[in-house]
Amino acid sequence: MTNTVDASWHEILRTCGEPSRPSESSLLAPFAELVRVAHAEPLLRRLRPWTGMWELHFSRCTEMDYTWDVPYIGTLRDGRYYVEGPHRSSPRIAETDSAQAAVAMVVDLLPPGCGPAFAGNATELAAHGQWWHREPDRRPVTLP
Fold first, then answer.
1. What is the pLDDT of residues 2-11, one digit of tens each?
2. By the 8 A CB rule, do 45 and 59 touch?
């Protein structure tokens, strides 16, 4: 699991400043800053990052189909950021001037017990849901 998550972060950090189209060059610096700030946050660094449309998403599983239960951060053309989610149909949560504030909002909205990323996809995570989120048994153990 850790290798998959670490490799994903490494790849995104390596390529976050590369334009896919020249018209999007105004988004390069803010998006690169967002990726660096999000990677610096230990709670987010435990999740599988993925990107699309100048958005940074976080998944609780390592493989596609990813989870859609963590808010995501997008980059606006004016260099600001928005936080939306966790689903595409969810309303915008906020807009902010700083990547730090956007990352802090996502961290505050993480589901309970979020991370580390589950090795597998969202369906497999859901199948293990009862086990994955079970509280440890804290009853005293009696030894013979």
1. 589 999 999 9
2. no
Nearest-angstrom CA–CA distance, 99 and 55: 12
Flag whether the pTM goes above 0.70. Answer: yes
115: left (phi over 0), alpha (psi -120 to 50) or beta: left
DSSP state of 65: S
Query: Which amino acid is present at 3?
Result: N
Under a CB-based contact definition with an 8 Å cutoff, are residues 24 and 54 in contact? yes
Pairing of strands 48-52, 72-75: unpaired
Condensed to tens digits (0 to 9), the pLDDT of residues 116-132 reads 998 988 888 888 764 44
CA atoms within 13 A on the CB side of 1: 16
